[in-house]
């Protein structure tokens, strides 16, 4: 049996749960009960109790650092300043089993008693029977806390199912309240803001960029609700919100990271009770444009050469850029500056391979050129991106200790499996449908290539000249003196993926 010091002073940990059971006991009420109980045991209470006013449950959406962390740190650093820890009730202290185990281990290690007022008992953390009963208690609390959380989530879900508004009022809407009861009656479009949004949808559909729009808005003095100019990222995020299409989204798995709600693949959608800002077709069209992968990168920059960035540098794998050198155009690596090659000779080699690939019956007869598969691909890409983001957020919450390692370990494997599954779905669907519709492959590709706009050729080349399809041309260093003396064909190697097995 381990020797415990005498229990003379206790330090309290006080916490109010914000659950809806209606049986809350305030910090002051807890204190009063603690003082009475301590007096009856002739123990002294530390003048500075730990107070945590955040929500107790790890099911709570906003994990917050509070006095719990301070207390753990103090015990670790031998700054606790008392012989015992006093809790009013065990369920008011631990958020998770991992927290419980951590606390009990620390108390045992530092020989600190644990008193629980409502149990009318002093526990010795070095005694295995005491430890066992505290752990069992924590298991009961955890299941209770999960039940409460389920109940709260269910009522939010029920409201969502009815399509009623929930949460902050988005840009473009105003709330209408009943003048007698003060209750929210409905959400309706607010003309000034809604008109801005409609303008943005219309212009994006017409090919305007987010940049052009926010630029105009800033000149016109059309700002966000916080009175600052719109940024392209804010506007892009706003326009893809389901709210504006009159779709109510309920997402039981959303997490708040850096003050921002992030949807997950588990989101469910229902028709909303509020008026949409734009019709569903326009919204879908704009969302498809904004989600297009090539838009995310170098959006707005004008492409003067179809193979810019497409042909790679062997030493550093960067994409080569086009420059002028002594009156001739050359491809040059701007990263390692090691590679330079004449553009004309290189284009000849690259286009020959590209045309060869795109005029193969095996390529243009493939049956995947349906619009359905394009829609399925974009849905799968979206779900994959969301699952990846969710996984990343979970890991971040673990790293910043907002979630315990145990919780992360429990939640991670199914998410990893989901990311892998969606990745496989995307790979299976990932065909250049969109590209094929811009410039379909066929025997006459060479003629049509010549007629197509540079931007179209660039988009197609960027997609087709990849390891997955025709292969990526990579230019190596010249083995001869002067970059023009070795023929281009000898310096180009093709990075290619092994052909996929046909299912
Ligand atoms: Zn390079």
UniProtKB/TrEMBL annotation:
Listed InterPro entries: DNA_bind_recomb_sf, DNA_bind_recombinase_dom, Resolv_N, Resolvase-like_N_sf, SSR_resolvase
Tell me the PROSITE patterns matching this sequence: RECOMBINASE_DNA_BIND (PS51737)
Compositional bias ranges of the Basic and acidic residues kind = 38-51
What organism is the protein native to?
Glycomyces artemisiae
Protein name stated in the entry: Recombinase family protein
Q: Which residues form the Recombinase domain?
A: 170-296
This entry's Gene Ontology molecular function terms read: DNA binding; DNA strand exchange activity
Give the signal sequence positions: none
Q: One matching Pfam family, short form?
A: Recombinase
Going by the entry's taxonomy, the superkingdom of the source organism is recorded as Bacteria
User: Where is the stretch described as Disordered?
Assistant: 36-62
